[in-house]
Amino acid sequence: MARYKRNNYNDFSTRISRGSYKQEEDTLFDTLKRLIILGAAICLGGLVSLKLYLMAVPPIANLSDFRPNMVTTIYSNDGEVIKTFNACTFSKVSINDIPKQLQQAIIATEDKNFYNHNGYDLFGLTRSMLENILAGRVVQGGSTITQQLSRMLFLSNEQTYTRKLKEIIIAAKIEKSLSKSQILEMYLNNVYLGSGAYGVDGAAQTYFNKKLNQLTLAEMALIAGLPQAPSVYSPFNNIDLAKKRRNRVLERMYKMHYIDKATMEAAQSEEIRLSSVPKYYTLNKAPYFCDYVMNELSKLGFTEQEISQGGYKIITTLDYKAQLKANETIISTLNGWGLRGKNSQAAVFSFSPVDGKILVYAGGKNYAESQYDRVTQAIRPPGSAFKPFIYTAALQKGLSPNDMIDDTPYKLGSWAPHNYGNKYRGRIPLYKALMVSSNVCAVRLIEYVGVRSVIQCARMMGINTPLQYDYTIALGSNGVKLFEITRAYGVYASGGYKVEPYAIERVESSRGKILYSAPRTKVEKVIETDIAAMMTSMLKTVVKHGTGMAANIGKPCAGKTGTTDDYKDAWFVGYTPSVVTGVWVGNDDNTRMGGLTGGTVPAIIWKNVMLQATEPYGNEDFGYPDILFKEKGRAVNKLTDAKAPTKYVDDSDVNAPTEDVVHVNNYVPSGFNEHVMQQGASQRPPVPQTSQPPIPTAGQDFNN
To answer: Does the predicted TM-score (pTM) go above 0.70?
Structure first.
């Protein structure tokens, strides 16, 4: 009986086990069935998407007749048109009329495997994919000439994987429909090459005023180097970068055996001779500003070709009326002072210390003659316009504007800096020393506070140009950019905050879609508000009673003049609570300007621009009282000498100098650039001890 039950039990277990297997088989089958259905759906969806992408390519007849549609417009902050992209140079030429070496230069630069792929380069795609994975976003394109053509004709330049997929699919379609010769012809006729030029023939006319068959190899190489960044490599904007790019193209041609080494070297040594700037630029009321805007758009991921063809509406921060006033007053003031030559130049930069909006941007007096931007490219010594950073560092050390300092002959080691006209005033308060722009007081101060403290202060406030670790920076012998020093003065105007200037409010598509909107202004507290207030009080006296009286606009303002040795550079940088403006005047070849100082032409230009730029704000004053007093302050050890004259000269006795000239006795700091002054035979001032810590970079903390 037990045996019978055991057999029944085993038989029952077997049946249960077989049922479980059957259930598992059914479940597995259902899963596989679902996966097959899902895979089929994905494939079908992919095929549908692929079909839609392929349908995006218009008939080849339309491709052949394609002509760029340039309707993008740049506007000022009040809606005035600054620039449109509809005045371009474009002409269609046959591939047979395009020099073979120009074709080779383009291929060597843009797509060396052009004749060996079917629209996309797998190796290039793999390389760019790895770059993108490492970056966590699309940063590397890896596009062939055919892909560039597909993007040029049908797509945007957005850096996304879906756009890249569309680009590859359309490129493959183009390759099946057109020959390599036809593709190259279309590319060479439609690629944007900067300065309003579309296609290689347009570029030949724009940059060299030549027909294609008249171009030299060097000129062809220059054109071939433009597609990746037309504004950056434009010889109109930066001749040095254009030359480096051209030479790189020639090297690639040599490596691909299109030319031999001797031909490459001969072309690399050829001087670049450009045509006069085209009418395209003369129609623009703010051409230097527009170049700056284009560079900023490039940083945001827009390309020049996309911008010029996309029908975009670019709203900027520019104050149109103030810009026109700057253009006008630069010419009239320079001419009025006899500075009529092409070599004599001036630059103006204004921005709001409240929100960072760039209001005026004039990089020179005539863009048609020179596209060199003296706002962001030129590095020139500011002379006494650098002194406020020394006084700021002194206030940070605990000094007061009323503390006394000796304005007397002074030697630092074997170096004897001197004031303009060898005029000395005895013991005076710090604010008076800044007001009359005393050189010896500036040197006494930098010795007291330390070179490092001054460099750190200038860095924090916005001077990014490398500063020479030397006592002569007290006299502004180190070159800076107008953009940077104006930004730094904005710290005083804003009560101690560094506000980053910006130019673009927003970018809209042709359909009104917002493609870019300016983020919240970048603001950083860099000095204490009470120090900014003290500096403003001191700099107000410069305009009221000192070297900057010609800049007085009849409302609360502050600023500082600057004039370098031998009158090669003249500056005025100043501000109200709402507008900061910097002005530089000089000769591009660094020759003398015949006694011109910061208190003359720069101050006059500054005044005229500021009268217009500050008009909307009335007679607003700074939000804190003046901190200067008539009574004598304390005599600070190391800043005063018991043997020095101690007469205190008040405002009623001071005849403020009309000149503000920095003399460094022809001393040239080690490694300093040649356009400050020439090496002389006089004694060099001592260099700070090498045992001191290294010069700080921006943001470093140290003790001095």
So the answer is: no
